[in-house]
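Handout, section B. The chain below has 237 residues.
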Amino acid sequence: MVGLGYLGGRAAHALSGGQRQRVALARALILKPKVLLLDEPLSALDRKMREDMQVELMKLQREVGITFVLVTHDQEEALVMSDRIAVMFEGEIVQLDDPEVLYRRPVSKQVADFIGVMNFLPAQVSGDGFDVAGLGRVSLEAAQMPGGAVSGACCVGLRPETLSILYEGEASKARETSGVVDEVVYYGDMTYYDVRLNGADAPLRISMRNVVGREVLDVGATTRIGWDPRAMVVFPD
């Protein structure tokens, strides 16, 4: 089940780190527990092996059909592997949800800042709308306030992938604004931009996939930013 049949004659101490992790799993699973606790099980592995083991653990959980309780400080690992995630601060569960709800609709600024990357922009409730620094006036739905209704000064969150750099000739999103590139971080498959907007104190982080034909902008470049108010989440200030 753990893919080590071909190494059955080798001592555990003679195996690699990832293989020893599989031995530990086999020793736990042979007891047929109702619940298996995995406490930071992949923290000692390199990135490629860790990603492979994440998939192996997911397959194994489905095969044996028991509950896995995974303790991790790796937010990405939690999102990838879990059916439900409990975010805890100071020993208290502050949000328990499936990964998509947790990522898209965090109930507080603290949870939003802990899970993934989130841009935060100051905003002000005005009449039936919100005035957002650097982006202007927007109307938002109650579902975009998962922590409850807000009044007065508040904060609006936007994930980097919900914003887009618009290149020449590219159609706009629902809304458009302009900004200046402050920083460029190239990751191969992705480029992360920090773009400063007029009226906003801090630059926005924007992630763009490096598809064929899409140039990487330089620091100081003026660019168009496409965004959609439906991607916003509102938190109390």
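Note. The chain has five helices and 14 strands. Compare this with the example in section A.
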